[in-house]
């Protein structure tokens, strides 16, 4: 299918409507995708990779198996 211009001037695939076509007055929710440093409960100095290395993976697998069965 080739691109065509819809009446609003946007390019869409022929016969396909975007969310903006159906709900032109929708809220812009991009503001909710910000990564605040306050969202990290462990603090900025916490090293997730180092802590992961200390994890007993076999015990974790066993716990998950017990939980799921």
Essential attributes:
two-stranded antiparallel sheet; alpha+beta; elongated; 69 residues; single chain
Distance between the termini: 49 Å
Q: Helix proportion of residues, in percent?
A: 25-40%
Topology as H/E string? EEHHH
Q: What is the strand tally? A: 2
Low-confidence stretches: none
Radius of gyration: 24 Å
Estimate the strand proportion. 5-15%
Overall domain count: 1
So what's the overall shape? elongated
Q: Number of DSSP helices? A: 3
Mean of residue pLDDT values: 82
Q: Mind describing the biggest β-sheet?
A: 2 strands, antiparallel
Task: Give the topology, please.
Layout (H helix, E strand, L loop, with lengths): L2 E3 L5 E3 L5 H4 L25 H6 L3 H12 L1
Antiparallel strand pairs: 1-2
Describe it for me?
This protein has 69 residues and is of the alpha+beta class. It has one domain (19-68). It has helices at residues 19-22, 48-53, 57-68; strands at 3-5, 11-13. The protein has a two-stranded antiparallel ribbon. The longest helix has 12 residues, at 57-68.
Can you give me a brief rundown of this structure?
The protein is an alpha+beta fold and 69 residues long.
């Amino acid at each position: 299918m080739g691109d065509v211009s819809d009446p609003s001037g946007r390019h869409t695939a022929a016969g396909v409507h975007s969310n903006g076509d159906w709900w032109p007055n929708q809220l812009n929710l991009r503001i909710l995708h910000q990564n605040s440093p306050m969202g990290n409960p462990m603090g900025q100095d916490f090293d997730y990779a180092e802590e992961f290395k200390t994890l007993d993976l076999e015990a974790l697998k066993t716990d998950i198996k017990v939980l799921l069965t």
